[in-house]
Amino acid sequence: SQQGEEDPQALSIQEGENATMNCSYKTSINNLQWYRQNSGRGLVHLILIRSNEREKHSGRLRVTLDTSKKSSSLLITASRAADTASYFCATGTSGSRLTFGEGTQLTVNP
Amino acid sequence: GAVVSQHPSWVICKSGTSVKIECRSLDFQATTMFWYRQFPKQSLMLMATSNEGSKATYEQGVEKDKFLINHASLTLSTLTVTSAHPEDSSFYICSARDRRGTGGDFEKLFFGSGTQLSVL
Q1: Looking at residue A2, what is its pLDDT?
Q2: DSSP per position, B67-103
Q3: Residue from B69, B10, B60 nearest B35 by CA
Q4: For the residues of B16-33, what is the DSSP string, one character each?
Q5: Facing residues of B6 across strands?
């Protein structure tokens, strides 16, 4: 069963706006990762945050993790049309498989 | 970065035939590869975990005799859908972990581009 639940399921914004996606999970984790998937393609790793970290940045991406609430958020700043894709969170424990959330479909309108 | 090549990208076959999908890590060795199935607008469903030189570990509900997985080397895993039927039509994706990774890098997965299987 999927541990991660993401919201919103779909998000449509204008180019230049910020996009925020949320992920909640149920069990203890070692790390949480975000992946991006363009339609009909494989997933691309975006960023990993460990359970002892609260915030991490990579370019226009900002990820937060709140282990007390078992939730994470992915913020994409100054969005571009090329950011249009599905975004998945994935939770993992050390050395084990990842469990993927249901995903958020982001559409950035030019 | 690490590259995973998945072939073919798409395949159309008649019901009853078998289809083999290959997943190769091009510039790294992968002790573990994962096979997923994905339906339109849905998440990835893990089918099995493939370890080099040993039998694959299948998830509950996945028929191991129908979805044959072979991981004969550190760079190649194959998924064979045997006696395919229309209900097997789906998007299949493989991923691999780089054995050289340490700490958080080891936890990252590198994905193939997926295979769209259509069974007529």
Answers
A1: 39
A2: EEEEEEETTEEEEEE-S--GGG-EEEEEEEE-TT--T
A3: B69
A4: T--EEEEEEESSS--SEE
A5: B23
Which residue, chain included where needed, has tokens 């890590």? B25
Position A95 pLDDT exceeds 80: no
Residues from chain A contacting residue B91 (CB–CB below 8 Å)? 40
**A12-22 average pLDDT score:** 97
Paired sense of beta strands A71-76 and A61-66, if any: antiparallel
Q: Measured between beta carbons, which residues in chain B are less than 8 angstroms from residue A40?
A: 91, 114, 116
Torsion of CA A103, A65, B59, B51, to 10 degrees: 110
Supply B120's token pair.
Answer: 């007529």
Pairwise CB contact (< 8 Å): B109 & A50: no
Q: Which two tokens stand for residue A68?
A: 């007390």
What is the rounded distance in angstroms from the CA atom of residue A91 to the CA atom of residue A20?
A: 18
Q: Give me the amino acid identity at B1.
A: G
